[in-house]
Amino acid sequence: MVKDRMVDLLQEHFELNLYEARAYVALVGFGVLTPAELASVSEVPAPRTYDVLRSLEKKGFAISQPGKVNKYRPVHPENILEKFIEEWQERVKVELEAKKKAKEELIELMTPLIETEIPKYGVERVWVVRGIRNATLKTREMFEEVTERILLVDSGYVAVNLESDIISAVDRGVKAKIIVAESLLPRLRESKLLEYARNGKLELRTLDKFDLPMLICDDEVFFALEDMAARYFNYETQVWIRDFRVRALFEAKFNEYWEKAKAV
């Protein structure tokens, strides 16, 4: 029903509760109402009408006319809804600035912790990362911190979605060797990865089939455990390891793939 849709929109976007939204719709429909009349024409319970109308007045959606029995009329929707949006925009700006300042202060306060000589990941050298969002953040962090080389065997997600992070690392002087699935190549036709490969800034090959996608950045290794159900629901489990011996094992597998792969 149209009335229900109006009530839903007022609740969802204009910070009115259910009874306030019902009361405002009734006021717009009838023009002027007393609390008793509101109870009779809307689904606002009689014991709540006084509080609801006073709340609407306080929020700027209604105006009262004092008398033996107070009467209430609505502020025109065009006026109050536009005013609400303007005030909301200002509030968002203030909140955004507050969050930016909080971020700067936190970074300043946390810098000594980040730069301490204690290993960044403590004594642990193995971490489990779950979910596509967390995996993306971890992958991006690896590209930001890599200093020497990147070895990537990719079935699609990294090369397509984190291309700029790879390019940024290469521009810093990091060596990169990348193997992508052949099926991915058409999506890279206009990418900078292909341009950089043609200009000799990185090495790029394709392989029709591989069973172990991986990312190696210096001594860090990142790979996904095989779990089709988790992958379907974007909750794939990935393992991050920082250990030169594990890196050597994965590098050997990467070299196997590299020998079979075709140059782009």
The shape, in one word, is: elongated
Q: What is the helix fraction of residues, given as a range? A: 40-55%
Question: Mean pLDDT, rounded to whole units?
Answer: 87
Widest sheet: strand order?
3-9-8-7-4-5-6-10
Q: What is the H/E order?
A: HHHHEEHEHEHHEHEEEHEHE
Low-confidence stretches: none
Task: Count up the helices.
Answer: 11
Q: Give the C-alpha Rg.
A: 30 Å
Number of strands: 10
How would you describe the overall organization of this protein?
This protein is of the alpha+beta class and 264 residues long. The protein is built from 11 helices and 10 strands. The chain has helices at 2-13, 18-30, 35-41, 49-59, 77-114, 132-145, 157-161, 163-171, 192-198, 228-232, 244-260; strands spanning 62-65, 71-74, 126-130, 149-154, 175-181, 203-207, 214-217, 220-224, 237-242, 262-263. β5 (175-181), α9 and β6 (203-207) form a beta-alpha-beta unit. α1 packs across α2 (18-30) and α2 (18-30) crosses α4. The mean pLDDT is 87.
